[in-house]
Amino acid sequence: MTEEADMAQERMELGNSPEAKRAELSAIYVARGLDVELAARVAAQLTVEDELGLSEGTRARPNQAAFSSAGAFVSGAAVELLLMLFVPLGYLTEAVFGGSILLLVVLDGLAAPLGGAIGVTLGGVVAMGCTVLVGKMFGTVV
What we know:
By secondary structure, the chain is an all-alpha fold. Helices cover 80% and strands 0% of the residues. Helix 1 packs across helix 2, helix 2 (18-31) packs across helix 3 and helix 6 (92-115) runs antiparallel to helix 7 (120-137).
């Protein structure tokens, strides 16, 4: 519902003052790092093609995103839970760390071709390292 309301608002703004909408979009892209000429061309293209360039196939689907995220979380947690259940306590830290890295590599391999995302593995390793450092600061990690 919120997405539909946002799109209706954008369509209205585009219909009422297309030049103002193009200027707004252009300013957004300049703020994100595009040069003024390219930002103006992008804004012009987005306001011509299917009202902001969004076809049915490219619009956000919040419910689908939420369920996909929940499914990915549960899948990752299940692998870690299985490791905790079956790996001896003396090797648990290394097993969880290794299992997490393996899952991140798999996610990196899936995400890069699908969405152009890269660095999932690196980001995950950095996040795990930060978690360990904070744990050491508070004395909860040996």
